[in-house]
Give the backbone structure.
Amino acid sequence: MMSTSDNNRDIEILAFAGSLRKGSYNKALLRAAKELAPESLNIQIFDLEGIPLYNADVEAQGDPKRVSEFKETIREAEGLLIATPEYNHGVPGVTKNAIDWASRPAKKAPLNEKPVGILGASPGMTGSARGQSQLRQAFEFTNSYCMPQPEILVSRAHEKFDEEGDLTDEATRKFLGKYLDALNDWVNKFTGE
Ligand code: FNR
C-alpha cells in the first residue's frame, strides 16, 4: 500500500454510481469528484454494467466474473465512494444489488469494516436525499463505516451539469472539494498509521 505518513499518504478509493445510463448525473458527479479530489485521494471508478441480479444459487457456484472483479476492487480499496440516484423515494435496485453482492460472505465481505462516503444527484429538489438515507441503513448490516457528515445532495442536477456531463455549478464544485477533503480524513481515521 502506498503509505507515507499521517494525512499525506495516498488513499485508494473505489467509486461507483448506482446508475447504468450513459448520461447519468451520478456518474458525472463521480467524474467531477475524481477531478476535484485532494492529491492524496486516488479515485478509481467502477462501472456496474454487467453485474447480474443477486442470486444465491449462482453465488453458490462461484461469483460471476464481473462480480469477482467488483468485490476484488472493493477489497483492494481503502474506502468507497458511492453516488446513488433516488428511485421512488428509495435506493435504486442497481445500487442495492451491487451492495448485496459485496455484502457476501457475511462477516468476511469486502464491505466489512470499509469506510464509505455517500453522495448523490437528482433533477428533483431533494437531490437523492431519501435514496442516500436508505443506503446508510444497509451499511449498518454490512458493518461498514459510513461518513456521517458532510452530506452532498445535488438537487436540480440538470442545471448543474452541462451537456457533456461536466459539473459547471461553482458552488457545488467548491462543496464537493470540501466533501472530498472530509472523506480523506474519514478514511484516514480507519486506515491511517
Ligand atoms: C426517478 N427519479 C426520481 N428522482 C427523485 O428525486 N426522487 C425519486 O423518488 C425519483 N424516482 C424515480 C423513479 C424512477 C423509476 C426513475 C427512472 C426516476 C428521477 C431520477 O432522479 C433521475 O432519473 C436521475 O437522472 C437518475 O439518476 P442518474 O441516472 O442521472 O444518475
